[in-house]
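Figure caption, in words: inputs first, then the predicted bound structure.
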Amino acid sequence: MNFLEILAKFDHNLRPFIVERFPKAGTFIYSRGRKVFLNMLASEPIDGRAEIPESYAKTLWDIKFKSPLFNAAGMFKYGDGYVTVQKQGAGAFLCGTSTAGYRSGNRKDKVVHPFISYPKSESASNWMGLPNYGHVDLARRVQSIVKKDGCPIGASISITPEDEGKVAINGLLDGLKLFQKTQADFIEVNESCPNVQHQSGKDAGNGLDQYLIDRLEAISTNFLKIREKNLPIIVKFSNDTDLELIPELIKILIDLGFDGVNFGNTSTDYKYVKSILNPKDKKAFDYFTENFGGGVSGSVLKNKSYNLCKVAADIIKQKDLKTEFHIIRTGGIQDYEDIKASEEIGVSLNQWYTGYFEAFAKYGNDIYLRMFE
Ligand SMILES: Cc1cc2nc3c(=O)[nH]c(=O)nc-3n(C[C@H](O)[C@H](O)[C@H](O)COP(=O)(O)O)c2cc1C
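Bound structure (flavin mononucleotide present):
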């Protein structure tokens, strides 16, 4: 076991004690600790132990993914960490989310990029506010990666939430055009961050508002229809998306020429989350949501992501599509049972964030190996 693996195990045992009793201190410690841990993870020299059985490999959109699971957006916001996850056996590396320009992200009560985990519920809350150095910086980092077979690179990008109309759309289009010139293999457009104020006046990602449709149409006309190479574009929505909107949403995405959809991002459905949260985590949950708000991730999203993906996959099955359109599931992915359930309903790829850290505490750098053994 290396130092990081020992640290993760130690923290895994200590964390319930801190979070249950001292939510405020827990928020302070884990908002900072999460970043320190990620920096160490991204710069950690590990040996290439994860030989994932070839039977799990998938070729989608002519791109080979050596397993159907990889990190969700926001884990490697600044583009570091490729070597670590590639050696661990991830099916891809997803960096970002980046926006048109630098963003410092959210800060309140001396807490920068607030985050807390709910250990007994294997879940977490964050109120980050999309901190990043902008598309140009992320694109430069993507270009510096030494890419390996079976671990393609994805870039997650978003509009600058405070921008309006054409300015917002142009910032996003600039990002798409920029990443098209890099070695990125696919792009995920993040239409779902709950932790930022949108000029449209709406919460992100729960419905089909005209601003969203305008953006999707602009991407279609100004990018998808004139793409210079095979660069699949998927759109990521919230796990709070209304199930009844899925048929219309999928139709729009396919008609406009998108290549896939991801359900999804964190939830702000606090009432539902609280109803299934472990009672021991409720004090911390109340503290965080009352002071920061934020989006909830982890095990509590398992059913939401499953239900959204199932409805979407059933619609896809009924269509006679001429091009590939894939469903990606994110939210509460923790173990092989989740991957199996996804496969059964027609999900092509899975992403994990909160579950990754739970699994790392148990299995260290063997996480993908253990998953697909
Ligand atoms: C600390 C943190 C930061 C995140 N940042 C982003 C982000 O920048 N872009 C994005 O699309 N999703 C972001 N997410 C959402 C995750 O990508 C994922 O959709 C969500 O956590 C649900 O997956 P999980 O249950 O496996 O954690 C973030 C999540 C967390 C916990």
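Confidence is low (pLDDT under 50) at residues 199-205.
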